[in-house]
Amino acid sequence: MDTQIKQHNRDIHTALILAAILLGTRLTDIFPWWSFVIPVLITGVVITWYHWKVHSFFVGFITGFTVWTGVSLWFCFTSDSLILLRFGWSAGAVILLASGLIGGILTALALYTGKSIVSNKKKTLSL
Amino acid sequence: MGRINLESVFPLLALIIITMALSGSLADMPPLGKFLDPFTGVVRNERTGAPSLQMPGGQLKEPVTVFFDERQVPHIYARHTQDLYFAQGFVTASLRLWQMDFLSYTAAGRLAEILGQNFTDYDRSQRRQGMLEAARSSLELMQQDPETIGIIRAYTRGVNAYIRQLHYWQLPIEYKMLNYEPEPWSDLKTVLVMKYFANTLSGYEEDFDMTSLMLALGEEKFNKYFPGFATDLSPVVNTKGAKNPALSFLKKPDYLNYDFMRAGTTVPDRTWNPSLGSNSWVVSGKKTRSGRPILCNDPHLNLTMPAIWLEMQLSAPGVNVYGVSVPGTPAVVIGFNEDIAWGITNGSDDVKDWYKLKISADYKKYELDGQWTDLKSRTEEIKVRGRKTVTDTVYMAAQGPVVYTAAFKGADRARVNHALRWSLHIPSNEILAYIKLNRARNYSGYQQAISSYSCPVLNFTFASKEDTIAVNHQGNVAVKWPGQGRFVLDGTQSSHLYTHYIPADSQPQSCNPPEGILVSANQHPTTDRYPYYYNGYYSEHRANRIREVLLQKDTVDIDDMMQLQLDNTAYFAVRATPALLHYLQGSKLPAQAAQARQQLQAWRGQYGLKDENALLYELWWNKVKDYTWDEFRNYPFISRVPDDYVLLHLLTAEPGNEYFDQLGTTQKETAQEVVTAAFREAVQAYDSIRKTTGSAEWGQHNKVTLQHMLHVAKLGVRNLPSAGAPGAVNAMSAGWGPSWRMIVEPGDRPRAWGVYPGGQSGDPASVYYDNFAATWNKGGYYELKFFMSADEAAKQTSRKWILR
User: What is the dihedral sign for C-alpha A18, A21, A24, A27?
Assistant: First the structure.
């Protein structure tokens, strides 16, 4: 039971770290749009290094999806949402969903890749 | 030392591949990762409505204040001329950056750079027609005038100051959709936009059509069916000199024969819209209720989003002007100041002529007066997005560029190896004309201002607070021998080149006529009592109607002028309907058709929103035209039929004319049979349309769309049911119409009203993107806020920028 709670907490901690990375990297408006992938990947390496057991793909996807969709919704609902209105609500919903999917998949893949790079499994290559 | 897990290679590869795929454009789609990134992509455009102000200092001599009124119209107050135009550039870019940039690419023939290889042919055609070269040579001319170039450079600096402070997330949505970024603005781009505007209004040409028709019909018939002058005429200026026979009857030029034209005569569709006309009129204070003159103007252009025009007030020592500008160019193009008001309409003259050349197969020489002369050439580099740069050779003869050659035949095989002579190629300084007009204080100031204006030929209308009214047909119109330029010219003879232009004092003009009105609406500029030969694509309907309404009334006021701008009566339909109905007298018609006839008997040519007869008349008249001119469709070259007035004349004066006889029938039809058969078919079509669409109301069939310049349907304003028709003063049609309705009453304090389709902002996320469209569509006007001082502006506006 304790192990389950611990893992659950690790998932939440990882999600919070990822959210901070996603927001921090992109709100600066300096780096290219895909730049968040690198710190997320490094996070994957680090948490594995520290033996955190995290559902990396799931956590990465949910966090990426939530942050990208959430930020989109924030910009829509704190303005007149005229762009989305012009394209129609259904097209607007597709735009929001597609944006969430891109954020989710890339975050999930980056975290999973980072986690996979360093492993205690046998099938490894020593450097 | 760590350990690398080989299993990580696959997710890493997937990550790289997906990231790369989302970073590039697939087919016509924008790069999805960049576009849908919520931090800088399309969603972020929801918040770009109010541009930020982070201007690097030191670019202005003194601070400039920009007051924005409740319609987002900027009122710019500067203490120095160059500061004023710097601020105009900055403010214009903040509202319309993508539009002005895109127009400059379009004019220069650079669309393939941003839209890809499908636009390479467009770019080649544009370069070969000489738009870029014309802009370059005009800029060279402008550089010789310190005043003009100073203003152009200040405008350029202003645009660039705005571009430099933009972040990617602030870019207009179109840049994100097409995945490119704005390049620095340049003086050349300003001139290119001006040339684009000139091209829109002077693209008229009929040389190939008329050549073929003259050869097919012969001199007598040609002059009867394609006369230089229509019968029902209200010219811009009522010239009263000796009659010029060449204007009413054109002899076939000796060189014009089938041997000359044997290279082919197929004339394809063209994109230039001959219906791009305009209305403008001036009424003297002697004829108005207020005792002040009134000037009205509504140029008819393609209706686009963002809107063609941008409204603004420009104020600095020596100038305080309000009106509309073309985004990308300095000054106000149509408007008024504290003393005068002016309007423009298209002069509609033919200033684009083609010369048939004899060229050597290697394009090194061409024949001129029996001598082989060197054909000049230059190489144009056309950048193509994602592909190698294309090079194209443009050949230049003495007459002008050879637009189509064996290497690039375009869509228009008949024009291969013809040189184009176009007044747009002549270096000119239209910007100076507008700068001076903005400052003009009286009639002589106005005359001096427009004297430097050359292309396109425009009718300038003028009114001053001293109650002087005037009209000038202004621009470079060549001195031509009869028929010169109406037909394809012989490029092997230097005598076919024209070298002189009609002197300024001989150009049609009128000031303070006794009847107290002046009208320009793309009609003939003169009567046939004018010493110079000219031709063009003139339209008489609207001018006749405006004149008719103005002369009916002893005095008029602003409300009358608004009603006249929105007048839906088609002058021609009023005259044609009784002539058509005359032929139905005594005809035994089915019940439906008989009822339709009764309806039309009470119709007075009204194209109102709810009118149910306009559609029936349109169907009927078009059928009559189809049946009458069926012979013309048998010509391989045909692209036009005689003018409507010619057909009306035949209906009333020659009911037995040979053209009423239909092809493919044994009997000889007359006007009676043609009109009756056309009516029966029109009634059937009318009933079918009514059943299919549920309505015969004109507004339901005359729907106007303000098309986005990239044809993105969702970014346009679509299907606005509209009153009006091309032949009515309210010349509303599916994609073009009144692009700026303006009414001005000059006086100690000028009063003015205006409206245009669209809105001040070019940003679809702004409420100011299309907020004028509904008002414009319903025939509403805004009272224009013209401030006499900055203090006044400060008191009556709620938002301002201070540029330092």
Answer: negative
Q: Return d(Cα B341, Cα B471) in angstroms, integer.
A: 12
**DSSP-assigned letter for residue B219:** H
Predicted confidence (pLDDT) per residue in A20-62, tens digit: 998 988 777 778 899 999 999 999 989 888 788 888 889 999 9
Distance CA A39, CA A59 (A): 15
Taking the alpha carbons at both ends of chain A, their separation in whole angstroms is 37
Residue with tokens 């300038």: B460
Residue B560 φ/ψ, nearest 5 degrees: -60, -40
Task: Give the gap in angstroms from C-alpha A4 to the nearest C-alpha of chain B.
Answer: 26
Cα B496 from Cα B193, distance rounded (Å): 31
pLDDT at position B29 is 81
Where is B36: in which H helix or E strand?
Answer: helix B32-36
d(CA B339, CA B355): 46
Best mutation site among B1, B26, B34, B43 for testing chain A: the one with the most A CBs within 10 Å? Answer: B43
Which residues, 6+ apart, have CB-to-CB distance to B88 below 8 Å? B76, B155, B158, B312, B314, B325, B330, B331
Main-chain phi, psi angles of B371, to 5 degrees: -110, 145
SS3 call for B109: coil
* Structure tokens belonging to residue B620: 């009927």
Q: Looking at chain B from residue 12 to 41, which residues have their Cβ under 8 Å from any Cβ of chain A?
A: 12, 14-15, 18-19, 22-23, 32-34, 36-41
CA distance B106 to B112: 10
Helices (H) and strands (E) in chain B, counts: 25, 29
> Do B442 and B468 form a contact (C-beta atoms < 8 A)?
yes
Provide the CB-side half-sphere exposure for A41 (13 A, CA): 17
> Which pLDDT score, from 0 to 100, does residue A86 have?
84
Give the up-direction half-sphere exposure of residue B161: CA atoms within 13 A in the CB hemisphere: 26
Q: Which residues of chain B have pLDDT under 70?
A: 1-4, 27, 47-56, 202-204, 258-276, 412, 638-639
Q: What is the DSSP string of B39-66?
A: TTSGGGGGG-SS------SSSSSS-EEE
| Residue appearing with tokens 């009639």 | B443
User: What are the structural domains, with CATH classification, of chain B?
Assistant: 17-64+79-110+138-201 (1.10.439.10), 571-701 (1.10.1400.10)
- At B290-318, the pLDDT tens digits run 999 999 999 998 899 999 999 999 999 99
How many helices (H) and strands (E) in chain A? 5, 1
CB atoms within 10 A of CB B276: 21
How far is CA A74 from each of CA A25, A83, A85, B47, B793, rounded to the nearest angstrom?
18, 14, 15, 11, 36
Beta bridge partners of B282: B295, B518
Contacts of A61 in chain B (CB under 8 A): none
Q: Hey, which residues 32-91 in chain A have their CB within 8 Å of chain B? A: 33-34, 37, 41, 49, 68-69, 71-72, 75-76, 78-84, 86-88, 91
d(CA A99, CA B438): 49
Q: Which helix (H) or strand (E) holds B711?
A: none
Single-letter amino acid, residue B141: L
Q: CB under 8 Å to B617, separation ≥6 — which residues?
A: B573, B577, B600, B603, B605
Q: At what angle do helices A89-117 and A56-77 cross, to 10 degrees?
A: 150
- pLDDT value for B691: 93
Could you give the C-alpha distances from B334 to B311, B740, B770, in angstroms and in order? Answer: 10, 9, 21
Helix B81-108 to helix B187-202 angle, to the nearest 10 degrees?
60
Indicate yes or no: CB of A123 within 8 angstroms of CB of B6: yes
